[in-house]
Specification:
With about 350 residues, the chain is α/β, with parallel strands linked by helices. Helices cover about 35% and strands about 20% of the residues.
């Protein structure tokens, strides 16, 4: 299969000339609360995103009690295994979340971290797969999702060029459409670590939609990526910067998310609407006359005065003798008295 620079998730085109596909990443910001998870769906939909994304963790399928916390934040979990266990939802609960997203007209996605998680998401009819950079070398998981032919959104936060090249080659043998995210797996990542240069390199190196998965906790990387023509943006979200959770420092607020959605729409309008400079100049002829200047006198002069350079200046508006023709007026004679508050015209000169 030849990879393509555009594909669809449900009825939404990714890549091509379509606007940037904006994903609100909830991850575990719901802290195991089903009601809180539903609240994120409403808030993200109100902000205007294209998709909302959770993470499907099944502790027994992906972790052990030996897994320690990335950030020691929990007041109730001894290790990450216990934490992942507390983050689990049932099939019925996941199905309810997906139905809620569909009702709010946004696409439901969830990152998967085990074959069991893939099976669970397949049961609720997830339309595409999000694979974190920690799973890029997970043959069992990739083999399972390759069988579905569904699009795969792949982060590359911990991968080098050889690993990414090898992975893309694997995808060329499959039927799954692919999108790549430039990502830096730090929470939060510094602006100096965002890697917009890598984003550019992806676009030149691979014939797939390219996006940015941002962990900076600010709007700036997403806005910069949009300006570069990003096909996708994934950004962590939180209700407030002081809320509980390990990813808050890497998240933007829902108010900022709304601004990002507005920027997505604005960037798209600018990107798909090229301006014909000559046509625009013609349309602005009235404005040109208002802002440009014409030849005028510095001081009042009487009829018969022979004009010299030090008598002349330029003043608004621009519908008299063009300022560029000032030197052509030197040596001309005034037919009548002319006030300095008026523009000169050829009819007043001999």
């Amino acid at each position: 299969m030849t990879l393509s620079n555009s594909f669809t998730i449900q009825d939404r085109l990714i890549g091509g000339n379509q606007s940037c596909f904006l994903i609100a990443e909830v991850a575990q910001s719901h802290d195991g609360s089903l009601g809180f998870a539903h609240s994120f769906i409403d808030a993200a939909a109100d902000a205007g995103v294209d998709a909302i994304k959770f993470q499907t963790h099944i502790a027994s399928a992906e972790s052990t009690v030996d897994e320690q916390f990335r950030i020691p934040f929990s007041y109730e979990d001894k290790n990450r295994y216990d934490y992942w266990k507390r983050m689990e939802f049932t099939l019925e609960q996941w199905n309810g979340l997906k139905k809620h997203a569909v009702k709010r007209n946004i696409i439901f996605l969830s990152s998967i971290f085990s074959v069991d998680a893939a099976e669970l998401m397949e049961k609720i009819g997830i339309p595409a797969w999000k694979i974190g950079s920690g799973e890029i070398n997970n043959p069992q998981l990739l083999s399972r999702i390759f069988k579905t032919d569904k699009p795969i959104l792949l982060s590359t936060g911990m991968s080098d060029w050889k690993e990414i090249d090898d992975t893309v080659k694997k995808f060329q043998k499959e039927k799954n459409p692919l999108a790549l995210f430039q990502c830096t797996s730090k929470y939060p990542s510094n602006l100096s670590e965002v890697g917009l240069n890598i984003f550019d390199a992806f676009k030149k190196r691979y014939n797939v939609p390219v996006g940015l998965s941002d962990h900076s906790g600010t709007l700036f990387p997403s806005l910069a990526a949009m300006a570069k023509g990003s096909s996708l943006i994934e950004v962590h979200v939180t209700f407030h910067k002081s809320i509980f959770g390990p990813d808050v420092s890497a998240s933007i607020t829902l108010e900022e998310l709304k601004m990002l959605a507005q920027a997505r729409d604005a960037f798209h309008v600018m990107q798909v609407c090229p301006v014909d400079k000559n046509k625009m100049a013609a349309e602005l002829s009235d404005m040109r006359n208002l802002f440009n200047k014409s030849v005028a006198l510095k001081n009042d002069q009487s009829a018969g005065t022979i004009l010299t350079g030090n008598m002349l200046t330029t003043k608004k508006p621009g519908n008299g003798i063009p300022a560029s023709d000032l030197n052509k007026c030197i040596g001309k004679v005034l037919k009548n008295d002319v006030s300095a508050t008026q523009l000169l015209s050829w009819e007043k000169l001999v």
